[in-house]
Amino acid sequence: MFLPGDPEMPTVPSETPSRIVQTLARHGYNADREAVTLLARANDPVAAIDAVVSAAGDDILRITSSDVRACLDSDTVATGAAVSSAVTTTEPPSSTAATESTTPDSAASTDSQPETPQQPSADTPTSTATKPHQNQQTQSKSPYETEGSNATGRKEVVGETTGTPDRSPDRNPTPADITGDITGRSTGTGEYDQFVTTFRDRYEQLSKLLKGRVNHRPATAIADMPGGSDAEMIGLVNDIRSTASGHWLIELEDTTGTFPALVMKDRPIAELVDELLLDECIAVQGTLADDSGILFTDSIHFPDVPRTARPSTADRHVQAALISDVHVGSQEFMTDAWNRFADWLHTEEAEAVEYLLIAGDMVEGVGVYPDQDEELDIIDIFDQYEAFSEHLKAVPGDMEIVMIPGNHDAVRLAEPQPGFDEELRQIMSAHNPRISGNPSLVTIEGVSVLMYHGVSLDEVIAELPEEKASYDDPHKAMYQLLKKRHVAPQYGGKMRLAPETKDYLTIDTVPDIFHTGHVHKLGWGKYHDVLAVNSGCWQAQTAFQKKVNIDPDVAHAPIVDLDTLEMTVRKFA
Ligand code: D5M
Ligand code: FE
Ligand code: ZN
């Protein structure tokens, strides 16, 4: 019992939302933000939590505001009216600092077509994405808000980590619409002819995107054309070699055969050869040699994202948090930062954040890399998912969560990766997340988000020159994937491919947002009006990363306004 004047007497509010959420999570419950708000405002939050927990049946996974109201009378818990009046009196003084908008990078034009300088499309509906958001200018700077700087995503944390008052939320997410999910559809057994089928489908899908741009001929027909003719071909890149004199020989393959295209080293298009990856689909146009044995290439075309693609936006103010690489079970998992993030999601400032998209690596996994076990905090894979599920319970129950697996998750490594199996779904069921395959096209509030974990990014970064793709600018590597209209163009490297009856890894629909993770670096920008976001991680630097000089961007939550596609990044560590 507390006596008046006792220094330990709880004050109102005495419990932070995160402590309430964690207490409820320890009892096995997930809670709506409004329920947490009511508990935080209760005269005696500890007693209120006890009462709610004892009243909740074993079959209940989620505590709602009506559960709280039902078991507490007006003496012990504030009413809805009292909650809102508390908010007006405890609102923080508005700060002088205005939020700077984040200026996404604008992709430089790199195609060989007639060059028009790529502007940040000031005349398009998305131009608001490059301007300060009206509302944000007048809002106080949040302790979790980072300075928007530039597309490289280097930011500085502003303010101290204090809480913001709560009030009842108005979250009303609609279920995500998901397409391109391999889950339950995999037919591949890994036999050779199945790879042929997958690559044939890749060719079918991607050549369609190029057919309007070139008047292409099959490889065998080109070989029969008279020497000196103009010729155009669409093919998958089979080989790239430099000749003795430093020119480039690109062997293209279509469904009829192969044909060599020569790119002279002193032509401007030679620069594009640096961007090529094996197995990607391109078109070439040029003139046949006298003996018709080789094509002297004048232009190279990528399937690419049309510059005229205009993103869809939500018709109300609603936001999504895009995160990835949580790595629960690793000794480096940043529990405190995660709790601050979950805590923030329970604040008024986050009330528009109705969606949480997680792009893979929920857990650290077991046996993913050599010596990984030395850094495991939880050694059993199922225990890791149990722990992940507990951390998910700290996220407001009224948010819609969509997640796909990554290379640390307990699903097959080969891509496309199916979503988690029934056993893992059961473990993670408390928050009722939508579980889908890697990759998946997820539409929320009319905005399509291509979610892909990002293992191919390592390959793109290794193969391409620094200025086109690097760990410091992971979004630029994403631009390359958009340009190639394929999330994992090169076969046979780090990315494992599972052969399927169709190629699930093509970017057949241009998304409004492209969301990846994996490289543990934060970066975002716009490529032809598609917002590309690589979302950092919740795992501090590992011994391996230290050895190879990877400095991860930890505990950032990119928050996207779905009505404007404008982005703010919040940092929780
Ligand atoms: O990947 C995190 C990043 O670190 C990604 O760029 C791969 C790289 N990485 C991490 N550990 C290793 C080892 N042992 N070998 C090669 N590359 C590594 P993640 O999927 O989270 O491990
Ligand atoms: Fe990861
Ligand atoms: Zn990964």
Small molecules bound: 2'-deoxyadenosine-5'-monophosphate, fe (iii) ion, zinc ion
Specify the structural class. alpha/beta
* Inertia-based shape: elongated
Tell me the number of helical segments per DSSP (H or I, 4 or more residues long).
15
In percent, how helical is the residue content?
10-25%
Provide the gyration radius in Å. Answer: 26 Å
Concise structural overview:
The chain has 573 residues and is α/β, with parallel strands linked by helices. It has helices at residues 17-26, 33-41, 45-55, 65-71, 80-90, 134-138, 192-211, 219-223, 270-273, 335-345, 381-393, 422-427, 455-463, 474-484, 543-547; strands at residues 30-31, 62-63, 105-106, 177-179, 230-242, 248-253, 258-263, 281-288, 295-301, 319-323, 353-359, 400-404, 434-435, 440-444, 447-451, 513-516, 522-527, 530-535, 556-561, 567-571.
Which tags fit this structure?
disordered N terminus; elongated; 6-stranded mixed β-sheet; alpha/beta; 7-stranded mixed β-sheet; binds fe (iii) ion
Can you describe what's shown?
With 573 residues, the chain is α/β, with parallel strands linked by helices. Helix content is 24%, strand content 18%. It is built from 15 helices and 20 strands. The chain has helices at residues 17-26, 33-41, 45-55, 65-71, 80-90, 134-138, 192-211, 219-223, 270-273, 335-345, 381-393, 422-427, 455-463, 474-484, 543-547, and strands spanning 30-31, 62-63, 105-106, 177-179, 230-242, 248-253, 258-263, 281-288, 295-301, 319-323, 353-359, 400-404, 434-435, 440-444, 447-451, 513-516, 522-527, 530-535, 556-561, 567-571. The strands form four sheets. It has a seven-stranded mixed sheet, with helices on one face. It has a six-stranded mixed sheet with strand order 13-12-11-10-19-20, with no helix packed on it. α12 links the parallel β12 and β13 (434-435). α1 crosses α10. The longest helix is centred in the middle third of the chain and has 20 residues, at 192-211. The chain is elongated. The structure holds 2'-deoxyadenosine-5'-monophosphate, fe (iii) ion and zinc ion (ZN). Zinc ion binds next to loops.
